Amino acid sequence: MDETYDVIVLGTGLTECILSGIMSVGGKKVLHMDRNSYYGGESASITPLEEFFKRFGIQQPPASMGRGRDWNVDLIPKFLMANGQLVTMLVHTEVTRYMEFKVVDGSFVYKGGKIYKVPVTATEALASDLLGFLEKRRFKKFLEYVMQFDENNPKTLANVDPHKTTMSEVYKASDLCTNTIDVTGHALALHCTDDYLQQPCLDTINRIKLYSDSLSRFGKSPYLYPLYGLGELPQGFARLSAIYGGTYMLNKPIEEIVMEGNTVVGVKSEGEIVRCKQLICDPSYVPDRVKKVGQVIRAYCILSHPINNTDNVSSCQIIIPQKQVSRKSDIYVCMISSTHNVAADGKYIAIASTTVETNKPEEELQPALHLLEPIDQKFIFLSDLYEPIDLGKESQIFVSKSYDATTHFESTCQDIKDIYKRVTGMDFDFDEMKRKHKDICGDE
Ligand SMILES: *[C@@H]1O[C@H](CO)[C@@H](O)[C@H](O)[C@H]1NC(C)=O
Ligand SMILES: *[C@@H]1O[C@H](CO)[C@@H](O)[C@H](O)[C@H]1NC(C)=O
């Protein structure tokens, strides 16, 4: 092959597929390869169930699990925030037309050994058992303050400097107690640790607004989930790329990243060198260009019952704030079921996860696993988290970050925007992704 691609992308994880979709829409000539025979890389959904069991060395699932092809098990459990950046990307690129979404039925938080529904409107706060009587009033006032907060309108700020005042100071001014702060920071602002307390308050206030705006779109929870599993997302963006001339190849072993001096010029696969100007890839393709920054432990649990004390919902998230179980990082549970076409009838998939803090990671998940009992079958998997060691300026190799323990896609979207800027030199502009309708209407 003589032709030179603008960009070669290695690995078909969500980050890579969104980038190749956007680059293709933007007119770049893109070649996308994966060593696996399936889409999704680390962010794949595994189907049928037999394939998932084989990953853990079990040849055959028990007959009680039903038909294997009714299952799609996500390797990375996450939900989409209804008003979040990934949904904007899906809508602008019209990738939504390849997929169907359902609202997640409930969002819960763990306090003092029990599960409570997360209150987010002032009315819910007043009705919830989560907070004591006086605290309810204070929380309602706090939420009202946050909702009207506009960084560009000093009248709404009440002497808070969005870029200087810390979140800890904002809480103090609202006189909230520790448990309420825990729920707000971890179940509404979705921070995984308490580091945010000492940082400027604007980010946290915007996160609470994102949660609230997302919730108000559909009412039950702020989260969406695609039918047939998260693996549909990378495939949707791969189709987008293909419509705009992107070339996809699965089952392509990658032997070498070819450099001239310190800059990438191509990729060698099956003895053949394909030339490119830039390379985007996941960490597994360039082990010498990434560093390990931590670990995430995930327990994939198959249940035959909804989780207790969740009103028998068929999907939900449970957040266990770190302080509640004397940890530094939160523990999460994402639960989905046959109503999302990811499990056989009457079955539930609950995935518990957290950032590893000790050398006994499985024990760290106990508070979550305890809530899921009885568990029909449990699989534990420990993943290393990688980040690139450089920004790719000289090498023109741009490496994505591993998927972290957060249960939504906001940090993934941030990584996509960062890589986009480094690759193109331009800020990521959601409107740039708007599909040009020539392929559909035919009137170029
Ligand atoms: C949940 O389902 C169980 C078993 O069918 C039932 O006994 C229980 O009352 C249900 N709980 C709620 C809150 O609907
Ligand atoms: C959930 O409820 C069932 C039925 O009442 C019970 O057998 C099980 O132990 C409960 N699980 C937990 C974690 O409380």
From TrEMBL:
Gene Ontology molecular function, alphabetical: GTPase activator activity; Rab GDP-dissociation inhibitor activity
InterPro entries per UniProt: FAD/NAD-bd_sf, GDP_dissociation_inhibitor, RabGDI
Any one GO BP annotation for this protein: protein transport
Location in the cell: Cytoplasm; Golgi apparatus, trans-Golgi network
Gene Ontology CC entries for this record: Golgi apparatus
Any Pfam family: GDI
Protein keywords: Cytoplasm, Golgi apparatus, GTPase activation
Domain of life of the organism encoding this protein: Eukaryota
Role description: Regulates the GDP/GTP exchange reaction of most RAB proteins by inhibiting the dissociation of GDP from them, and the subsequent binding of GTP.
Stated family: Belongs to the Rab GDI family.
Annotated protein name in UniProt: Rab GDP dissociation inhibitor
Naturally occurring in which organism (per UniProt): Eptatretus burgeri
